[in-house]
């Protein structure tokens, strides 16, 4: 259950090297993205995820919370309508699901799929440009507030995803919303709320 729910992030958090290419990203925007990365040690808050299924004309809504502490600690927890998620201290990963009663810990290195997801969620949340590789082309869709538009380059992603829009908050200090548009008119919106930067986080969260 956890991996299928997190499969969304396999698409939006896979690395991409758009930053190093000629993709109409002004130098001052690149500098701003580097500044965001350098300024963030911790980020935490809540999220609302809305998945619209066009064929059923239905929107599925999930709510949860997240916490990230560089360089390697992360917690991503769905809390409504189902309770499940994972946390990692960079070495161990713990997964849980209230529905199945499952709660287990294991070395992160034994779960390569989740390891990739963890690494890229950390990279995205802190705008770690050096950790981002080559799967999307990147353009600046809007400047104030900043919106980045990603178009997949790999065929396996292009067959599913039309584009991804990454929206920053009004001060351009953190990601506020992620919108994933699919070719079949399905779409997923994730809005981050009550975001706190550089606050002390309890290590027991991870």
From TrEMBL:
Transmembrane segments: none annotated. Pfam families: LolA. Keywords: Lipoprotein, Signal. The keyword Lipoprotein applies. The keyword Lipoprotein applies. InterPro entries: LolA/LolB/LppX, OM_lipoprot_carrier_LolA-like. SUPFAM superfamilies: Prokaryotic lipoproteins and lipoprotein localization factors. Gene3D superfamilies: Lipoprotein localisation LolA/LolB/LppX. This is Outer membrane lipoprotein carrier protein LolA. It comes from Desulfonatronospira thiodismutans ASO3-1.
């Amino acid at each position: 259950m956890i991996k299928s729910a997190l499969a969304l992030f396999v698409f939006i958090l896979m690395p991409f090297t758009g930053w190093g290419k000629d993709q109409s990203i002004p130098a001052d925007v690149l500098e701003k993205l580097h500044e965001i990365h350098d300024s963030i040690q911790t980020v935490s808050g809540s999220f609302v995820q809305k998945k619209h299924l066009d064929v059923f004309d239905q929107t599925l809504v999930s709510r949860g919370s997240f916490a990230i502490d560089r360089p390697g600690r992360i917690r991503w927890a769905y809390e409504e309508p189902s309770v499940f998620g994972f946390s990692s201290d960079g070495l161990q990963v713990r997964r849980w699901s209230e529905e199945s009663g499952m709660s287990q810990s294991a070395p992160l290195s034994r779960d390569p799929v989740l390891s990739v997801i963890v690494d890229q969620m950390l990279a995205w949340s802190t705008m770690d440009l050096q950790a981002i590789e080559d799967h999307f082309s990147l353009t600046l869709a809007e400047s104030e507030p900043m919106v980045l538009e990603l178009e997949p380059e790999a065929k396996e992603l292009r067959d599913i995803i039309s584009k991804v829009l990454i929206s920053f908050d009004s001060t351009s200090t953190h990601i506020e919303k992620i919108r994933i548009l699919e070719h079949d008119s399905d779409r997923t919106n994730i809005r981050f709320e009550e975001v706190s930067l550089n606050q002390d986080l309890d290590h027991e969260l991870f």
